Amino acid sequence: MAERASRTPSHQVRDDVMRAAVAILDADGPDGFTVRAVADQAGVASMAIYNHFEGMNGLLDALWIEGFEGLALALGVTTGHPRSDLLAAGHAYRRYALAHRGLYTVMFLHTFKHFEVSAQGSYTAAQAFQVLENLVRNAQREGLIREGNSLDLAQLVWSTCHGFVALEIKGENFSTNVEQNYDALLAMVLEGLRP
Known about the structure:
This protein has 2 domains: 7-53, Arc Repressor Mutant, subunit A; 55-192, Tetracycline Repressor, domain 2 (Orthogonal Bundle). The chain starts with 9 loop residues before the first helix and ends with a helix. α4 (56-75) packs across α6 (101-109), α4 runs parallel beside α7 (119-141) and α5 runs parallel beside α8 (150-169). It is 71% helix and 0% strand. The longest helix has 23 residues, at 119-141. By secondary structure, it is mainly α. The chain has 9 helices and no strands. It has helices at 10-28, 35-42, 47-53, 56-75, 82-99, 101-109, 119-141, 150-169, 178-192.
């Protein structure tokens, strides 16, 4: 009696495809990101991407969700002092983006053709932003940041940090000392938001 070949568990295929997708985005960026390339990297048939993610859109959505879940965790720092929390979150944002370039590309740096974020994806992104808005609110309560709409103020912080990091990832940040310049950017943002 011939032994039946064992099948890879479904969750393992999904994990392998996710890892392969991130590896391709990290190494080649969006240009090398195709169903065939991801399947080859994961060692699965192309149909696995359709079976486990309902196609490329589902795979991109899964990457988007993973990225924003990770970012929310990274931003959720607590030092016991609202100003220090905001500074720590700013540094955590940059560290996360640099360590997860493939995910960050899906989240912010490339518009993938026909990609539409799911309701779950939009919710997850909003939750990550909410972490930052809560930090801003805490700083407002302590009188460290001016009064005003916390959502608008959090958007200023996010946009500024994102701009710096996006330029850095794209190799277009010409700072003579990137670390010191990012520290200066965070200090400038907090100074600009003082009451």
